[in-house]
Structures
1.
Amino acid sequence: MINVIGLGYIGLPTALMMASHGLNVVGTDYDEKRVASLNDGTITFQERGLGELYDKSRALGVQFSTVYQETDLYIVSVPTPYDPLSKQVDPSYIVSAVNEILDTCLPDSTIVIESTVSPGTIDRYIRPIVDKKSLQDKVAIHLVHAPERIIPGNMVHELIYNNRTIGADDRAVGERIKSIYEQFCEGEIIVTDIRTAEMTKVVENTYRAVNIGFANELAKICRQAGMDVYEIIRICNQHPRVNILKPGPGVGGHCISVDPWFLVGDYPGLTDIISASMNTNDAMPAYVLRRIHDIMKEKGMTDPSRVGLYGLTYKENVDDCRESPTLQLLECQKKHLAEPLRVYDPFVKYDLVENQYHDFEAFLADTDFVVIMVAHRQLLEKMDLLRGKVVLDTRGVCDLDGVYRL
Ligand code: SAJ
């Protein structure tokens, strides 16, 4: 039996994918409400294809519990926050999960860490407690790092088709875990050592962060030059070796906005490009706020309560608001002691911020100036409703006359 520890954005899809392929899976989470909801038949977050996977897994007997199971294979997908001051990873959730596993597991067990960690974290914080237990009880506990790569919005597809990396101390253990992932993963699975696996994961997200930072910098350059950044990027991307990403109102989520800081925290003197890109991305919400101010001035608008932000999630068509650019912008606005702007997001059905709307039409009725922060499918289909309003489009998706860009 496989015990998946942590039923969040990564653990839950992984547990369901494994169970739906006939593997015997129990998902464990300390959050009683989450476990109760999953046992009652209610999935805990929205993601394309997850509902079907959930139904199939339930029919095949997947179980959810708050209790760690006695078994010989664990997959750990708990959060790895970072300390905003030191920029270093906070391994406390993984350490406590591994401690609980060590208290429960069978003598010859494997612990697979899927959570993202900074290079060296497993050697520094996890290996010592595992080695101590192995020595004390004369048991063999194997450590493996299998970092996830799935992108919110397309998780189910990517779980099946992405290539994967498995880091293990012992090749045979790595190959054994590979054969389990091969039950559902059709991509190539590369077996390497643990530190290499840790580094590749953080490097992948850093690569994307740096490239988003570049696109954001281009947007600012083009604004100053009075040029259309989207047209420039579109033309440049016709070059066979150029692929520039999209500028936006900032970077959110719990990966790209966090993982590169692990490298900055661990190698402060060697990460100039990375920290400059991260600072550029982090400064985008304040840049959008300045754009709102400038546009209001240009239009002779004086009432900020008529300005509305469309989108609260960190990107389109997901319900995840972690580190979202809209939340960052509202935070920035708060520091100026300003009344928070109006906000609407079709994916956020609960009250998250002040002045939040749950009805698109009501939101539009109360706003003259709409800032597109997230390009949800709903908006793309109803763009006409913005006709006649002042629009600042931070995502490059609106073609209405007179639209303002980043
Ligand atoms: N963004 C831009 N411009 C772009 C692309 C993204 O501004 O051209 C913004 C998004 O709007 C969002 C943020 O960046 O706010 C991050 O979004 P994303 O779609 O780039 O990535 P995530 O955070 O949803 O998922 C990433 C993925 N990593 C890479 O593509 C290298 C995913 O494969 C990882 O599994 C995931 O991080 C993770 O969990 O580490």
2.
Amino acid sequence: ALLLFIVVFILTADYIKNRRLTGFPPGPPALPIVGNIFTLDHKRTHESMTELAGRYGDVYSMRMGQRWVVVLNGFEAVTQALVTQGDSFSDRPSIPLYDDIFHGLGVILSNGHMWKQQRRFALSTLKYFGFGKKSLEPMILEEFTYVAKEISAYKGKPFNPHLIVNNTVANIICLLVFGHRFEYGDEQFKKMMKLFEQSIQIQVSVLAELYNAFPQLMRCLPGPHQKFKRINEELKDFVRTEVKDHKQKWDPSDLRDFIDYYLNEIQMSKGQDDSTFDEECLIMSVLDLFGAGSETTSTTLRWAFLFMVKYPEIQERVQAEIDSVIGQSRPPSVDDRADLPYTDAVIHEIQRMGNIVPLNLPHVTNRDVHLRGYTIPKGVTIIPNLTSVLFDKREWKTPFTFNPGHFLNEEGKFVKPAAFIPFSAGKRLCLGENLARMELFLFFTSFMQHFTFSMPPGVKPVLDYRFGITLSPVHYEICAKPRHE
Ligand code: HEM
């Protein structure tokens, strides 16, 4: 009888605490305690979430364990929240798995004054090092020569591009942040890349989801959080070594990279009460740039190869355009973009269909808000579903077909529809958008200038994905035939 009483008590308390209040967005019925954790197909969460909008509307709610989540769908609802009402929707929620290890430092996970200072600093420093003093263009083009050599060594035989492309893209962040690149075979580099990969795998595991839904309970059990902590401590140590080295060689009259510049900021802001610049925050900002700036661009390039082998006629047309505008004797330059509308359209369509950050990063309401007739209290997690925007039937002519025509007008000129928001929108807009766009353009045109991609004989291209924070193609092998000696 006691047990029955406890069960009835828990269920009643859960019902009273978690019922949808009047004016709150509707959504699928939730189970007691666990809520809607099992409503979604976790292998394709982004598609399940988009489908639910068909039943409950563009703004609907779900409960993940004890946490309410509002999912925003379609271009109108997402931009109304993130842009028009951006002040209310720009904070990040607390995520137990991260909070315990990163303590809300850096750019991606921080809020308020810390976020403003760190974001402004990172943006202006990337701009200074990337586009100002040391131009990014030669860095990217030089890195291409290394990856081209690596790929040429396969002599058109099948290889898995995953690690090679990851290393290439990670090296651009290394150049900006550490001031140097790594050889692809370097043991330290290989270890760092492996740690990042493991860290991502844990973040997308079901155990991590359970940890975030029931942190008090899960903290007491052995689980993914201990391993996650260990991996991230190792990553922090890696950055700490670089910081130590930079401090020894630091010369305020010659700031070489992001770390030097940050050390300078720590010095300059000493004595200011509201300064958030210190070494722990530096380490987190560096990890943020790696975490957000490596996997994303490299996954997009891996989708690019797959789309080109799936649609060889599009690959040929891109190559023809590059041959006629740039030729074979000089590398591409960002200034060529305006003369390569078809290639530019293809890159944008790869980003749209690749949809690599399918559910965006989570946001949270920082006050009670009214959105599209609903009332959403302060502290509710918001998922601005980018899948529902990049495939929004109201915005795209053929949403589910690879169609570079989405980005070309009748005269064949490049146009960018407003619903193209793979980098999100509003105050939290991706901080690396300019860098990513430059990398994608220069790497993609260089690859197309030098290689023709095809599947290994007898293998058909498969566009299957693995769902995670990023949506990545399942591992595949590809052949890259050099186009000229
Ligand atoms: C945030 C997409 C490359 C740094 C984001 C967000 C998205 C995104 C969707 C979340 C925005 C939001 O919360 O509303 C992408 C895509 C990329 C890419 C599709 C490549 C194709 C990069 C690169 C860097 C970078 C190269 C850095 C060098 C960041 C940072 C944030 C962020 C620091 C957090 C911004 C904040 O919280 O204020 N990105 N990103 N990203 N991205 Fe990117």
